[in-house]
Amino acid sequence: MKTTFIIAWRNCWRNALRTSIVITAIIMGIWSSVFLMGFANGFVQQRVDKMVHLEIGDLQIHSESYDTDSDITNTIKHPKETLAILDASKGVQSYAPRFKTEAFARSARGQQGIKLLGVYPEKEHEVLELETRLQAGTFLESSLSYPILIGKKLATELHLKLNSKINISFTDANVNQISKNFKVCGIFSAGNDAFDGFTVFVPIDRIERLTGEASIHEIIVKSVEPSTIDILENDLKAKSKGNLVESWKTRYPEIAYGIEMMSNTMFILMSIIIAALLFGLVNTLVMSILERKRELGILMAVGMSRSKIRLMILFESLVYGLIGGPIGVFLGYITIQYYSYNGFDLSSFGEGMDAFGYDPIIYLYLEPKYYLIYTSYILIATFFGGLYPSRIATKLNPITAIRSI
Length: 405
Description:
Number of strands: 12
Shape: elongated
């Protein structure tokens, strides 16, 4: 077998230019596909991370009918008992109760329908990371009588800046119209126009001043271990009667579906690239066999068995995969590591990306298992790629092959 492999190795490099071109094609094809997989995965993962860490948390708790009736009176059922359950749960790292209602914002330069969130600032810091996205000011840590935190998009549309006045009006649980002037204490940018343009935060105790009570409409929960949120979701569901407990996967299934689709897409992309490379590899091997018909006929005439001829061709096919595959995967790994640290700059498309909730800097990411899977696929594919050419070689008639030119 060693001799057969040595012969196969030398056969590959008899035409060094052709072999180099094929191996280079394999390397470039694999490298580019690994890069694309890392880019696409980083693109999707960024959106998920932003939503979970800046907007929605790992889990959310509402009343069972909140999604169909988001009236201000539709609050969390048994709030004290629910908060006690969260305090006692080992899977809950932190949580943030919220007052939530539809409201209307007016400034001297415009008006806009908004989502008003009354929050405990210290609790929000423990669950979400929105304070890390402040463009100016503070996250409600202000000496102002009625501070408000607004998004960059809303600030632009209503021409607001720090300490600007903004009038907020909404209807309380007793159907009284509440209207109050707030002052902007901070401006954030979550990188999502839909969130930045319609969401404002105020301290929940200010809501209590205005309405006489601070009802809780939702609770945002951060889990100790994000990979086990399904278990935590089921545990809290069993304990919190009358309320709806949903992980972000359950509440926003389109995002979870996107992640699943991305995983399937990566396997499809790998299959397409490998299939394309196989066509080139098989074509190269068939050309090589046709050029060496006389040589192969002589080898069979002097006693080399057809099984060894077949094995030799298979080894030749494997040489391409053994060299091109690992090098292509390694270059892809190096590229992804570089851009996972430095990010891939798409700032020229920044405004368009913000509209869909993406940052202009994409940090590439690819799970380690895909490098191993891809390398295995390549080696298996190059082995099967040598089967057809080896069959052609073993079907040659020694006498006819020797007489060929």
